[in-house]
Please model this.
Amino acid sequence: MQHDDILKLSHDVTAALRREEPALSADDLDESVLQTAYEELSGRFDEQYGGFGTAPKFPTPHNLLFLLRYWKRKNEPRALEMVEKTLLAMRQGGMYDHVGYGFHRYSTDLKWLVPHFEKMLYDQALLAMVYTDAYLATKKHAYRETACEIIDYVLRDMTAPEGGFYSAEDADSEGEEGKFYVWSIEELYSILDPSDADLIIKVFNVAKEGNFVDQVTGESLVRTSCISAVP
Model:
């Protein structure tokens, strides 16, 4: 899309929004709106793996921020439990880049195991906020560490030399989805001491034939082993 096309589209969208009547006014909002939102999120919560809905599963940090505030306002323990289960599952799974930090856009499966490897700036910003708020609420170091790592990633890889920020990092490299993020066993042994390589291979379930599988076709997308996806 060219510059002039972007400007025209932005003007069209702005004009359309101005024509729309607001669905709710400030006078229509009361405690029942918060309760309804909480009940809907609670009903969609994945009790086994965390998060909301089915695959593909997105991080939806705005929902988690709402639940943190609902927990604080209502002293509702389940709201905090949903947030914590989701944050820990995302941090420990393949949604998170355990080597370079930052979160991928979404998980292709229910378990947060196999990511779509694109990284979005807005996800990093909102997830840094969620993990920071979770740390303030619980004082658990894992949340603080994750927020700091997200910021480290953004400053290192998503910050332009001129001082602005890049909006996204592409999922594809060399014509393959996620190739930049996967490693072969041979590569691990070439850059790590043997004992460290052995540990990494065990912890991240690295297999010689690869362990990154397309959730739709069931076929291996790459021959290398993915250490961003933790079982």
Residues 71 and 78 are 8 Å apart (CA to CA).
